[in-house]
Amino acid sequence: MMLSPRLIRRAGAGAAAVAAAVLIPAVALAAPGRAARPAAAPGCTRAQLQDWIGVPPGVAAGTAYYQLEISNVSARACTLFGFPGVFAVDGNGTQLGSPAQRSASDPVRRVTLGRGATAHVELGDGTGADFARCHPVAASGLRVFAPGDFRSETIPLPGFGACRTPGPKLISVSPVLAGTGIPHFSH
What we know:
Elements: H1 5-30, E1 49-60, E2 63-72, E3 78-81, E4 85-89, E5 95-96, E6 101-102, E7 110-113, E8 118-126, E9 136-145, E10 152-163, E11 171-173
Parallel strand pairs: 6-11
Antiparallel strand pairs: 1-2, 2-8, 3-7, 4-5, 4-9, 8-11, 9-10
């Protein structure tokens, strides 16, 4: 039996279609792809963090500026994003004045803290004439909430200026910033 050229072309086209159907998925699976992005570290929790103040403060334009340092004391990396919650407290841990207002001095960025790494926040405290608008009192410390966490830590800071009652917002905080805020300090 002799095959016609037309039948040979049809059989060849069918074989090519079957080969393509088998080879295309195999080639696609073997082709190099883009490397997957590593998963972002989970958000930091209060249990992973230790807050501390870099003293003495700097003073500019009637405001004392402290470096609120936030260190990762856990065994794994975690991330911070946004602003911490901060307010002054008396010796009993009772809130004094209004909570800190957010400062737009720096852009908000996600900061990843590796094991033992430290980030910081610029913390401003009004002085002098600012306190004339409220009933001034010396605080015993600061209550600090990590961004996105509702648990707090109290940092002793005797003499920190505060108002006895809510009213003017004299404390300000920047968003969390990478690295320590203390010049020439590495941790």
